[in-house]
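Researcher: I'd like a structural prediction for the single chain below. Treat it as a standalone chain; there are no partners to consider.
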Amino acid sequence: MTATTTANSPLRLRLRRAAGAVAVALGLALPLAVPTPAAAESTPTPSPTQTPEHEGVQVALLPDAKGSYISGTPLSATLALRNDATTGLGVGTVHLELGRTALGDRHAVSAWLDGSADTPALSPIGDVRTTAVGAEGTSRTQVVVPAGDVGALAPGVYPLRARFEAPAAAGAPAPAADSRTVLVVAQGAPATVITVVPITAAPKGDLLSAAELTALTAPEGALTAQLDGVAGTPAVLAIDPSIPTAIRVLGTAAPATATAWLARLEALPNERFTLQFGDADATAQAAAGLTAPLTVDDFAPFLGPAGSPPSTPTPTPTATATTTAPAEPSPDAITGARSDILWPRGEVTPAQIATMSHYGEAGSTTIPILPSTAFTAGAEGGAVATRGTVGGSAVLVSDEAVSAALSDVAAQSDANARGSALTAANAMLWFDAPGSTVLAGLSRADSRPAQGLADAVTAFSGGLDGRLDRVLSAPPVELSVATESAEDRAAAVLALQQDADRLAQFATILERPADLTVRERISMMRLLGVGVHTTPEDFAAALNGHRTATQKTMEAVGIQPSNPILISPKVNVPVWVRNDLPYPVRVRLHVVPSDSRIEVPAATDVEALPSSTTPVRLPLESHVANAEITLSMSLTSPTGVAIGPQQTARLTIRAEWETIGLIVFGTLGLLLIGAGIFRTVRRRKAVAKTHAAEGMEGSVGGQQQDDAPPSEAMERSGSASASSASAEPESSREEAHE
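Model: Treating it as a single chain, here is the predicted structure.
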């Protein structure tokens, strides 16, 4: 046996180490071996500045040609060794061991690769001396085992193992690791695979937003990677029409990268078919008894600034071309896509297959792609014919084991992990008939590395075109269904339909009911998506959340009554209409008093603004003085659909209080006026008496002066003259001075 070391380099990029560690953690069909506890104990403690994602030794044995081996020839393989520890790894030895008994079926192959079964008898076929590997370093060694050491092998799948051992460091256990793989000895012409690739993307809301599209269609975006992976390959594309819809309805607001992505998708030569909108599960709908699948046919609530979906650019007309402008495509249209293929979940019954066979447009024929495990032979681990019939209904069958292995390949960004998964896929493919055409469907995933996707599609294509006609033209085989209906999903569809019908009636309060009904339909179809909520518990929780949200929407409009005390026979009673929807609503407020002597409008039309509470004044006239009455109030849509619960306002009427109040205030007013008049009269009388008294005193004084003797009169006159004379000179002096 010869061994040539071709690389020994440190892993300087920690992102690469992280990717490799994640690949191991995902449990690949042929993972790099995880160190044993002893090896983990021997790993030196890293310095405080370093925190490796995974420490230890990992080994991978990758036979050439994806594990295919021709008996009697040397065995060539690549041995990859990786040291994730922060200290170097010394020289070690890899022991190669081969089982001489072929694994019996796919279950045995899976159990060997994942280590869940007892180790079969293995024989040593050679040892490989490894070189020292530095801290966080890798090495790749090309190994060639002579044909004589391998021995003669009949067609089959054989277990192959590589065990790494190295001397123990002082005071530490010896590091060790192993890797499990297989040798595939062909039994004839290899089968070729047509791979169906789902193109999906899950939004946070009903449709992908402009921000989400910008991220997904960026150069490093997930949707860009999917197109990069399938470009130039024979992949059959299964496209969720909600993606082109999200781009088209944005109109001029659509990101340039998104419109370019859509143009690139439609320009690809790959065969394609459309999934249901949101990748909804047709099996659940058939189980619920729906004679036609759920659809979305109104996108008006999502139209962007352009007001309508942008039309697909057309080439400049030539001299022979017509000048008639092409009709704008439907937002969910996909150029060149087939509409006669379904790809639902696999829990199905013959009756449901018959129902789905008429899920095409206007009841036309459709053919579902179902996993091989849905049929008796596939459930037991065997191969199933790619084209079959069930009770006269045509079906296509995807090989579930091959599909799962290729899905692992497509998910890996690490080359060693992809190589291991490809070997596992080759082993699963061995159990299909030699030279047959196998249909494989990758699992739903919104993100895949481009190289992994390309390898998954091309590895076993045989260089042939990926056309469904290759399997549709094969003679059908009558198949027996082994699965049962998913009753939880069937019941969910019925419940969701009932909720949707109630919401449609509620939506008549909107000027455009589609603002609610279309969003509800899309949300419902996404809930039924094939690739989401895959466990019963997860689905039940999602269903409960959806129904709760729908009920909350139908409770978003209601009445907020008041309970006033009315002291007048005519008054406006305040009522509020609450609208928590982001759309204006039109409702009719109905009022019924408990007493016929109360007059109030029986119906009042109300227009409530979005996300607001609108006040309404109800004119009320009471023909009763004292009463405790109630007003029963309810809302309906303009078409008469009841909206929200009925509310009751309790009114206390005290109409005589107004008369009593007027009398009391009138009396008080009269008393105040009378008191004012009385005080005024008294004041005037007092003033008159005072003036009268003063007038009498003046008259008596004058008479006494007149009756004085002449001598006294003369004296007073003289005194006055003297005073006047004495004042004159002083005045004259002042004038002279001036």
